[in-house]
Amino acid sequence: MDDMFATMTDAFLSSRGHPGLESRASSQLGLRRLRQRHAGLARSVARRLATDRLFFAIRPDPETANAIAERTRLWRTEYGLTGRPLKPEHLHVTLFHVGDAARTPPGELIEALVERVAGVAMPAFRVEFDRIMSFSNGAFVLAGDESLIGLEVLQQRLSDVLDPEPRPARRFVPHVTLLRDARHIAEQSIEPIGWTACEVALVHSRLGQTAQRDVARVALQPG
Fold first, then answer.
1. I need a labelling partner for 82 at 20 to 30 A (CA). Which of 22, 127, 140, 181 fits?
2. Right CATH for 54-219 from 3.90.850.10, 3.90.1140.10, 3.40.50.10230, 3.40.50.2300
3. pLDDT per position as a tens digit, 81-130
4. Which residues, in sequence order, are CB contacts of 125 under 8 Å at separation 6+?
5. What residues contact 34, with CB distance under 8 A and at least 6 apart?
6. Domain-by-domain residue ranges, the chain?
7. Distance CA 165, CA 97 (A)
8. Model confidence over 49-69: pLDDT tens digits?
């Protein structure tokens, strides 16, 4: 196995089963190896045209997802957008991009990722979006500010346990992509829409297709 998912599986599995300092040392060594091999593997995957993506996300509950979808249809008509809205069951906030590869992620990797994330201490929290806007890449999104601090905290804690090595915090802009369109809409306030985040989903998506599924869900647990 020489793809990104295989390498990540090796790195995460190498950190299992070693308590205390030995566990941390093993984890750091495995993750350093992953870091060192990442650049070459990324180029290899690009040449092979990656087909599968794995990422962690927060999803709205079904009732809220349907409400977001309905409001998206109204905004689409109001602003003359022509992009296809995401399905309610596909709406999410991406928290951590695990990686892309040219094959389905192996079960061993999924289990190792879930095991690592299960150790993250974070109670359930309220998520609330009070703005809509377009990003430069054409994504028409729900956005917010202070009401999304819980997502920022959770994203950083996931990064702490999943990143190959400690690095400065990456810029993270919590948002829910609603559709993509060539027409850009300026940022504006809306009636807030939100939900209580109770779990993190590990999502497997097929690149270039409207196909994704939650391969695991991890309940948020207070510390």
1. 127
2. 3.90.1140.10
3. 999 999 999 999 999 999 899 888 999 999 999 999 999 999 999 999 99
4. 150, 154, 196, 197, 220
5. 7, 8, 10, 11, 164
6. 54-219
7. 15
8. 788 999 999 999 999 999 999
